[in-house]
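Entry type: protein chain
Record version: 2
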Amino acid sequence: MVILFSSLAGCAALFQKDELTLELDRLYGNLPSEMVWFDGMFQTWDENGKWKVGYRGRQYNWNLAELVQPPETVENWMELLTLSTQYRTSKVYTYPGGATFTDVPDPVVAMEALRLTVQERCAKPITFQRLDDDRASPYPSVIFFISCERPAKGVKGVSVSPDLPESQMHRMFRGRHAFYHIHRIRHAPTLDQATFDRWASGLKALFVCDDTVPGQECKKHKKP
């Protein structure tokens, strides 16, 4: 009986993997037209052309791009800009290291989860500021700042780097088709006020748009 149960469990896992693969093939074969527009952010920061893609990757329904300012690299940086998109799927699929979702998460819920994660990885109390919370938009979003002066020993991961302080500013959007997360990190225990304000202004200039939704003329934002 135990052997039979184990065999059936293996078959179920294999079927689920095939089902997810088929759904992802359909997703990436016809991506939603909804997207985040970044031009305003880079123009506000006056940093057009300064950022270069250091890494771009995809895992299941999750897409990631990491940008650096040369000569820095994704292996050795003082500042990192990360653009992340997670598309929703028709059902929840669990895979090693995570899971998909059928409903796009609330940005405030995701913000709180990240705040707790950073606090767990920091040896001292973090600094946290919630800067903007747009609940009225068709694409609700939140902007917030977190800094960690001294990471806990043995910490690994991008949220808090080993042995280096971090100041992070984030914007999260809840789209109709995906969850969007844009954040900028500097290896510094804090930011001066001018830099803080400039980062916040750039993130506020971001917006989500979808040409298939009446009244949202995304193409008018494109450069000639």
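Comment: The chain has a mean pLDDT of 85.
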